[in-house]
Design brief:
With 292 residues, the chain is of the alpha/beta class. It is built from eleven helices and 15 strands.
């Protein structure tokens, strides 16, 4: 498994449902990096992740993990992969001790010692039933289990949603520790873009089943900007020069994807930095072009 460059390669994945299509989705997660997978609820993040995990079979396209086919080599891949979901996938009547006994029979690389170290670090009880756990405790339990069998790839689906900022920061620090090993990689879907701004190397935006943007996070943040102007000046900005614009009675905020070109063409305009959340918001409204 040592020859692969990308931890995940998603090639032209299409999945058709009544009322929703995951449409020709392609992007890569480089080995040794964190890819933030961003989009509003219902954009197609979970469908994509479930396809990567071979829970959903695509109509077209293929997925490679560690350079292997995610369907034909599924068992080999899943010994080296951990997935963390928004909801706890373990039964409510189990406790942490019972889960240890189950998972050491599932994963060849399972380490009870590592697992119990994480339980202690997270202050999780060993005998309390999972049904009595809070949301934060359930998430910490999943992460403890995910990091206890020597996985090289973590796939996270909205894993930090509903957690308080202190717990989220603690978990993000653990992910950064995990990435100290250059063989380790993370695909992390979230609509909490501030988390991804802290830790992601690359980001991929998905909206209504289509990829809008994928690349290095710093490049995307550097190239995009919010041009602020009066309503009168906004009328002089050509539609092909911006993604979309929020126009109010007081003026306009205009998202540009090439700050340098916009600054050159519209000299004197104020162009501020944009956050990932702002970029996502303006792309989601790209078809309206102008919105309030």
């Amino acid at each position: 498994m040592s020859e692969y460059t990308n931890a995940i390669e998603i090639n032209g994945i299409t999945k058709r449902y009544d009322g929703f299509t995951l449409d020709n989705v392609s992007f890569n997660v480089a080995r040794g990096s964190i890819m933030g997978f961003i989009g509003q609820n219902g954009a197609g993040k979970s469908t994509t992740i479930n396809t990567v995990l071979n829970i959903i079979k695509p109509d077209d396209g293929d997925v490679k993990i560690f350079g292997l086919d995610n369907r034909t080599d599924e068992l080999e891949i899943k010994q080296q992969l951990s997935a963390v979901f928004d909801e706890l996938p373990f039964h409510d009547v189990l406790n942490a001790n019972a889960l240890n006994n189950i998972l050491k029979g599932v994963f060849e690389g399972w380490s009870s010692e590592t697992y119990f170290e994480y339980l202690d670090r997270f202050q999780l009880p060993r005998k309390k039933k999972f049904g009595q756990f809070s949301k934060g405790m359930k998430m910490k339990l999943q992460i403890a289990a995910a990091l206890s069998h020597g996985a090289k790839l973590l796939v996270m689906d909205e894993a930090t949603t509903g957690l308080d900022p202190v717990v989220r920061n603690e978990i993000l620090d653990i992910f950064l520790d995990f990435l100290q090993d250059e063989d380790h990689s993370i695909l992390m879907s979230s609509h909490i873009t501030t988390d991804l701004e802290k830790v992601a190397d690359s980001v991929t935006f998905i909206d209504r089943g289509r990829i809008l943007l994928t690349g290095f996070k710093d490049d995307i943040l550097e190239s995009h900007g919010l041009l602020k102007c009066t309503r009168r000046d906004f009328k002089d900005i050509e539609p092909e020069d911006f993604v979309s614009a929020r126009v109010t009675d007081f003026g306009a905020e205009v998202m540009v994807s090439d700050r340098r070109a916009a600054a050159k063409k519209y000299g004197g305009a104020v162009i501020d930095s944009a956050t990932l959340e702002e970029i996502m918001l303006f792309y989601v409204n790209r078809e309206k072009k102008e919105w309030r």
